[in-house]
Design a protein that fits this description.
The structure is a homodimer of 189-residue chains. Chain A is an all-alpha fold and 189 residues long. The first copy, chain A, folds into two domains: 48 residues, Homeodomain-like (Arc Repressor Mutant, subunit A, Orthogonal Bundle); 125 residues, Tetracycline Repressor, domain 2 (Orthogonal Bundle). The first copy, chain A, is built from nine helices and no strands. Chain A starts with 8 loop residues before the first helix and ends with a helix. The structure holds a DNA duplex (30 and 30 nucleotides).
Chain lengths: 189, 189
DNA sequence: CATTAAAACTAATGATATTAGTCTTTGAGT
DNA sequence: ACTCAAAGACTAATATCATTAGTTTTAATG
């Protein structure tokens, strides 16, 4: 390695991730990222091909972390239902801990999506869990509904749409419980 | 009125709305909007105070249209369940017909939110519908879960997360049916 | 007919992402 | 030890963007 690299791709991505989470994506310019790292903006192009490339990489990291948390949580508790509830709470907790970057992953407004194939494979263990509740044949539908409910809930919550009072922790648990009861009832063979 | 106005605020907002829906928000600059209207960009500032102001107004229109559709749909069918299903399908249809602007309304990444008070009042008729199914005391929780499921489903769908096959129309109907069955069972008094 | 003010215009500013071209330093090969 | 190739930093420059300031035009009002 000829010149002494002051940064590498991973620290660049991680720095950008933290800045996005801290200040919001609108406030994060390449100059800010570069200054945080102690270099100038054009130098970043030796590590990423564009700002979009950088943000896409940030989304990839966020997604990997999210699913890593879910799998850890999946081993908490006995029985399919308990494990499922643990996953749901882990999902919501992650979104609350990473409100900006979580939202960014599922914001299709720009082309910042990590390769979809990743996501599809990553979700298979969760589908197996759903199969225990709703039967193999309905597991994909049940999984999609669950992901929708989870993602929709935390997104609306973070967007400030759930401000009319009430304990949101309790309400979330109840909504999940209702959905799980529903799929075992309506979908199971 | 002294000078002949070539545009007014409403046509400006509607033009911007169409351009955003057509080309995506990233491609819509004030110059593009202005050129579409046959004037120059700085002239727009006589009708809106900033680009954010304009996009906020676009979101307001989108939200109003969405809820208008929901209320129309709410009178289709007999009984609370049938009317609820009609609302759900209208919601999804709206999102499919306005994928970009729908997504934009619920993208908190910038400060483009229409005043939240609007949204909260607009949703009351829907809550009354939920009260018929889950009881008055649980109607807010049931409503939040429904909105989460609806928003999450269409968002993930539009973000390309539901591409592993299967009939999404059928799956959507089943997921809704499961949730509705769940709340009447788990939440009702 | 003169005045006024709304609404268009042109010109200018500062920030942005990105590209081109230069300089510096280190590690690999002699 | 000495060269040298190239990675990775730099400066300078470009095009585009939102926004502001200042000017001009024109129609309704007196």
């Amino acid at each position: 390695m000829p010149y002494p690299a002051q940064i590498d791709r991973d620290t660049l991505i991680e720095t950008a991730r933290q800045l996005v989470e801290q200040h919001g994506i609108e406030q994060v310019s390449l100059r800010l990222v570069a200054e945080t790292l102690g270099i100038k903006a054009p130098s970043l192009y030796h590590h990423v091909s564009s700002k979009n490339d950088l943000l896409r990489a940030v989304n990839e990291v966020t997604q990997k972390r999210l699913f890593a948390m879910l799998y850890t949580a999946m081993h908490d508790g006995d029985g399919a239902t308990a494990r499922l509830l643990a996953v749901c709470h882990a999902y919501r907790a992650f979104a609350h801990q990473n409100p900006v970057t979580y939202t960014l992953v599922y914001t299709p407004q720009l082309d910042l999506h990590p390769p979809a194939a990743e996501q599809e494979k990553a979700v298979l263990p969760l589908q197996a869990l759903m199969a225990e509740l709703a039967g193999e044949a309905n597991s994909l539908t049940a999984l999609r509904g669950l992901l929708a409910l989870l993602h929709g809930w935390v997104t609306l919550e973070l967007a400030g749409q759930f401000r009319r009072g009430g304990d949101l922790d309790v309400a979330f648990a109840e909504a999940i419980r209702a959905y799980v009861a529903g799929i075992t009832l309506v979908l199971s063979p």
